[in-house]
């Protein structure tokens, strides 16, 4: 599924503020700056993301779908997460749709206040079959190792 929601007017301002604070070392509810090489330009691109921890594993969820950072991460095969001066290079495994419901539920429970509008009426209390139904539109990456 090629679901993609463009950022709204307020999203840019919010993202700049979160990215600025995270670069200073102030993580807002688990925020990180994702650094990934652009698949066309080869230049390093940055965007704020929410790092989710579930069952001892770490995940990145793309609430707006097939975004540029998702496409770049897939092409690059690795990325970096930054908070303050700490930068971690990582590799990842993309989850299959049937693996996503538990992660999407945890993500919504933690960050619905920020990203709930992108889930179009689905929340952390939605049944598993509903979460499975929307799973193809929400890329999820499990961080597998530090590089």
Secondary-structure topology with pairs:
Elements lengths: L8 H15 L7 E7 L6 E11 L2 E5 L6 H9 L2 E5 L2 E9 L6 H15 L12 H7 L5 E7 L1
Protein name: Nitroreductase
GO molecular function, one term: oxidoreductase activity
Organism: Amycolatopsis methanolica 239
What key attributes describe this structure?
147 residues; alpha+beta; Pnp Oxidase, Chain A; 6-stranded antiparallel β-barrel; 4 helices; globular
Describe this structure as you would to a colleague.
The protein is globular, with a radius of gyration of 15 Å. β4 and β5 form a beta hairpin. It contains 4 helices and 6 strands. 31% of the residues lie in helices and 30% in strands. It has a 6-stranded antiparallel beta barrel with strand order 1-2-3-6-5-4. With 147 residues, the chain is of the alpha+beta class. The protein has one domain (9-146): Pnp Oxidase, Chain A (Roll), CATH 2.30.110.
Number of helices: 4
At the first level of CATH, what is the class?
Answer: Mainly Beta
**Biggest sheet: strands, sense, closure?**
6 strands, antiparallel, barrel
Q: Give the overall silhouette.
A: globular
Euclidean distance between termini CA atoms: 30 Å
What's the architecture in CATH terms?
Roll
Taken together, the total number of domains comes to 1
Order of helices and strands: HEEEHEEHHE
Q: In which range does the helix fraction lie? A: 25-40%
CATH topology call: Pnp Oxidase, Chain A
* Share of β-strand residues: 25-35%
| Rg on CA atoms, Å | 15 Å
What integer is the average pLDDT? 89
Which stretches of 5+ consecutive residues score pLDDT under 50? none
């Amino acid at each position: 599924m090629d679901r993609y929601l463009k950022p709204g007017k307020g999203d840019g301002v919010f993202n700049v503020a979160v990215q600025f604070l995270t670069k200073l070392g102030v993580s807002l509810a688990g925020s990180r700056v994702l650094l990934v090489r652009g698949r066309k330009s080869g230049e390093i691109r940055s965007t704020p993301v929410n790092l989710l921890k579930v069952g001892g594993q770490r995940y990145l969820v793309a609430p707006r779908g097939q975004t540029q950072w998702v496409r770049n991460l897939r092409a690059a095969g690795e990325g970096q997460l930054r908070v303050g001066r700490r930068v971690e290079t990582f590799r990842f495994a993309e989850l299959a749709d049937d693996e996503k419901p538990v992660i999407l539920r945890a993500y919504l429970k933690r960050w619905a206040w920020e990203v709930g509008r992108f889930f179009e009426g689905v929340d952390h209390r939605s049944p598993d079959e509903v979460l499975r139904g929307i799973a193809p539109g929400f890329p999820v990456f499990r961080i597998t190792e530090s590089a």
